[in-house]
Amino acid sequence: SATLYVVATPIGNVTDISLRALHVLSLVDAVACEDTRNTAQLMNRFGISKPLLAAHMHNEREAAQMLIARLQAGERIALVSDAGTPAVSDPGARIVDAVRKAGLNVVPLPGASAAVTAISASGLVNDEFHFVGFLPAKAKQRESVLQSLAAAKPILVFYEAPHRILECAAALKEAFGPERQVVFARELTKLFEEIHRCPLADAEAWLRADAHREKGEYVVLVDGAPAADEEGDAEAERVLGILLAELP
Ligand code: SAM
Predict the structure, then answer these.
(1) Is 121 left (phi over 0), alpha (psi -120 to 50) or beta?
(2) Counting atoms of ligand 1 from 1, which one is nearest the CA of 220?
(3) Cβ atoms 94, 64 nearer than 8 A
(4) Does residue 231 have a pLDDT over 70?
(5) Measured from the CA of 88, which atom of ligand 1 is nearest?
(6) Mutate which of 218, 220, 221 for ligand 1 pocket (most atoms within 8 A of beta carbon)
(7) C-alpha span between 80 and 69 (Å, rounded)
(8) Among residues 89, 173, 97, 81, which one has the least CA distance to residue 131?
(9) Angle, in degrees to the nearest 10, between helices 165-176 and 139-149
């Protein structure tokens, strides 16, 4: 019956598509997608052919109305973005909101998301994370966002475009200090996947060490601020060290 399926798609390795996603893509009446060419390619890979409807950032409101009309006529529709999970730094949220408000059925199909994929292999030991997504492109606005996060305890999760990765690393060091741990998760699930962890002090050197590193897609993780008592402990130890050195 009339349902909007929110379907996650691969973030690089096409075989990360789920069996359920393939099943749903084969049974729906149409697929609403961010970029019809991109989605046509994915569907071709699996021999699935469906009417494709454009639902991108610039037409999300109108797309929502069009999809609601089709759902009200009893259609089943899949919603996908170019890569990963729709509505996460991608179009989809407004459509889902409108469809739910119209009292229609929404069913999510979980799958790849770059953020969670990066966290899982980062080795950062922290029970919490804070998804920031893309930082503002303008330096002033970026600084103020980063400043507001400087004392946060969760892992901070950023998405970054390759042409801004060096600038991003410099801004992170400025905001969080040279000792804070950063993880660059680059080209996840693809041929040149790299996951590199270092203090922010060493980030620029790592990025510059290989020309490929200014290309490709990045998730950047910054570990949370050390707990106040850890900082206190470190400070106490430092003072104790000085005192002990002075003792006869
Ligand atoms: N909806 C997607 C998700 O669930 O992860 C995110 C889409 S957002 C427009 C694209 C950004 O996600 C890229 O700029 C990059 O920061 C990150 N990303 C997507 N695929 C990636 C990959 N294979 N490796 C690293 N980062 C990736």
Answers:
(1) alpha
(2) 16
(3) yes
(4) no
(5) 1
(6) 218
(7) 18
(8) 89
(9) 40
* Separation of alpha carbons 242 and 228, rounded Å: 21
Ligand 1 centroid to residue 237 C-alpha, Å: 41
Residue pair 34/82 in contact (Cβ under 8 Å)? The answer is yes
Q: Report the complex ipTM.
A: 0.99
CB 154 within 8 A of CB 222: no
| Strands annotated E in the chain | 3-7, 30-33, 52-54, 76-80, 105-109, 129-134, 155-160, 181-186, 194-199, 218-222
If you ran DSSP here, which 8-state letter would residue 103 be given? T
Predicted TM-score (pTM) of this structure: 0.91
**Which of 7, 9, 11 gets mutated to test ligand 1 (max ligand atoms within 8 A of its CB)?**
11
For the record, the structure tokens of 84 come out as 């990963």
- Residues in contact with ligand 1 by the CB-under-6-Å rule are 11-12, 81, 83-85, 88-90, 113-115, 159-161, 185-190, 217-219
CA of 82 to the centre of ligand 1 (A): 9
Ligand 1: distance of its center to the CA of 84 in Å?
7
Task: Indicate whether 61 pLDDT > 80.
Answer: yes
- For the four alpha carbons of 115, 117, 122 and 124, in that order, the dihedral sign comes to positive
